[in-house]
């Protein structure tokens, strides 16, 4: 079933198992996204608040893309909590769920061939940390696309920007990531 069908089944037929399936599908990605943006002690509260608001909304109106809408709600909840509670940088080792990945995503590993080096996940993490500190808007797009699996259209919905802006930010993120990666070689 598609996400929309799961949510519709939950709303129309009161099928809790449909919502449970949707929840299981996105809980880890959403929690990782929240942790990448705020402190761990706030993450649980934001996670719960985002899902509560999402449930309220789906009973009020039809949502075409539930996954994007859920992440947009989470982002808005974080913004409402105040910018002073956001992190300046991210500890990738502790907070971002790489799903046990030991290989670099193709989008990123391609540029390493320019340096004739073997892919080095630790150097990539350092470069991404620097990217998040200096160009957080580029980091957000990169993280959502590569590690959370969102399309550029979904990210545009979450960030409330045009798809072209998101695509441009992604390309700039790769450019800046290459620059930071070169600095640590």
Can you walk through the features of this model?
The protein has 185 residues and is mostly helical. The chain has ten helices and no strands. α2 (16-35) packs across α4 (66-80) and α7 (121-134) crosses α8. The longest helix is centred in the C-terminal third of the chain and has 22 residues, at 163-184.
Query: DSSP helix count?
Result: 10
Main sheet characteristics: none
User: How many strand units?
Assistant: 0
The Cα radius of gyration reads 17 Å
Q: Give the oligomeric state.
A: single chain
What is the CATH architecture assignment of the largest domain?
Answer: Orthogonal Bundle
Give unreliable regions as ranges: 84-105, 111-117
- Looking at the structure, the CATH topology of the largest domain is Arc Repressor Mutant, subunit A
Q: Which CATH top level class of the largest domain fits?
A: Mainly Alpha
What best-fitting shape do the alpha-carbon axes yield?
elongated
Number of structural units classed as domains: 2
Helix content: over 70%
Mean pLDDT, nearest integer? 77
Based on secondary structure, the structural category is: mainly alpha
Percent of residues in beta strands? under 5%
N→C terminal distance: 46 Å
Question: Helix and strand string, N-terminal first?
Answer: HHHHHHHHHH
What brief labels describe this structure?
185 residues, single chain, Rna Polymerase Sigma Factor, Chain: A, mainly alpha, 10 helices
Chain-wise SSE layout:
Blueprint: H1 3-13, H2 16-35, H3 40-60, H4 66-80, H5 92-95, H6 106-112, H7 121-134, H8 136-146, H9 152-159, H10 163-184
Helix pairs in contact: 1-2, 2-3, 2-4, 3-4, 4-9, 7-8, 7-10, 8-10, 9-10
């Amino acid at each position: 079933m598609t996400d929309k069908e799961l949510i519709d089944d939950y709303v129309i037929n009161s099928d809790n198992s449909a919502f449970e399936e949707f929840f299981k599908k996105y809980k880890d990605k959403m929690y990782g996204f929240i942790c990448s943006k705020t402190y761990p002690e706030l993450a649980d509260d934001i996670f719960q608040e985002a899902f509560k608001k999402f449930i309220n909304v789906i009973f009020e109106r039809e949502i075409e893309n539930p996954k994007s809408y859920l992440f947009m709600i989470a982002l808005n909840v974080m913004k409402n909590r105040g910018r002073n509670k956001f992190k300046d940088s991210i500890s990738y080792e502790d907070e971002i769920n790489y799903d046990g990945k030991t290989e670099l995503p193709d989008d990123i590993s391609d540029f390493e061939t320019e340096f004739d080096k073997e892919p080095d996940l630790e150097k990539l993490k350092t470069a991404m940390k620097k990217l998040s500190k200096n160009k957080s808007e580029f980091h957000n797009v990169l993280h959502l696309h590569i590690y959370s699996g969102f399309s550029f259209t979904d990210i545009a919905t979450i960030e409330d920007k045009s798809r072209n802006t998101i695509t441009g930010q992604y390309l700039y993120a790769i450019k800046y990531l290459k620059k930071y990666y070169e600095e640590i070689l």
